[in-house]
Amino acid sequence: MTQDKTEYIDSFAARFNKALDHNGLPPRNHGRIQLVAEMFLLSHAGAGKWVNGLALPPKARRREISQRLGVQYDWLEFGKGEMLPKKLDISTSLRRLPILGFHEAANFEKHLENFIGETVSIDINAGRRAFVIYSQGTAMSGRFPEGSMLIFDPDVYPQDGDYVLAKIHKLPDAIFRQYILSDSGKFLYAQDPRFQTHKMSANDLILAKMIQHRMNY
After folding, report:
1. How far apart are CA 188 and CA 195, in angstroms?
2. In this structure, which CATH number among 3.30.470.20, 3.40.30.10, 2.10.109.10, 3.30.70.1130 belongs to the domain 90-214?
3. Rounded mean pLDDT of the chain?
4. Per residue in 20-61, pLDDT tens?
């Protein structure tokens, strides 16, 4: 490997880790590699190479990384410009979003109609039915610590690897999971290994896609 290429991979890895820091992932040696593996459907060894600067992700994956982590592609790829996109004028994007619990979210349309409960003001672009849930339990706590603000939009279609709110027909409450597509079906994946991966049936529903989360510092 040439010196120039080695330097580029090192600098890319530094920016990649900075973007991971911004998204609230734990530091190296504290679960970062495993979470990157889960986020981008990699082996643990492959994720370790990305995180530690031992290999460069393919170009198509680098665009995916910028989108998934919410950073500008030119910054991630070349170190040019700012890491984050410019924020919109808050006066045009400030929203008061309703706060729902997991039980209410299972039937969110009913609860959002003439909503009179607690709300939170957020500067965000989202559909008119967007709402907030605060994370609970350990199923996703490796990536989303308990109490994190999760912002969901029912009008955004989820893609493979997105985080979603789902309704399992046998359960009264909605659940928060990662949505995984494969040749063998659609799956809802929990990061805590004590929770079984659920293969979706025709009676299960994806309620909303998580469009943003904010850590509860």
Report:
1. 10
2. 2.10.109.10
3. 87
4. 988 888 888 888 998 888 888 889 999 999 999 999 999 878
Whether the CB-CB separation of 192 and 145 falls below 8 Å is answered with: no
Q: Name the CATH architecture for the domain at 3-78.
A: Orthogonal Bundle (1.10)
Nearest Cα to Cα of residue 118 among 105, 131, 127: 131
Nearest to 175 by CA among 187, 183, 167, 184: 167
pLDDT at 216 over 70: no
Give the span between the Cα atoms of 151 and 213, in whole angstroms: 6
Helix, strand, coil percent content, the chain, rounded in steps of 5: 30, 25, 45
pTM of the model: 0.59
Answer yes or no: is pLDDT of 97 > 90.
yes
40: phi then psi, degrees, rounded to nearest 5:
-110, 15
Question: Which position has the token pair 């607690």?
Answer: 118
Q: How far apart are CA 97 and CA 113, in angstroms?
A: 13
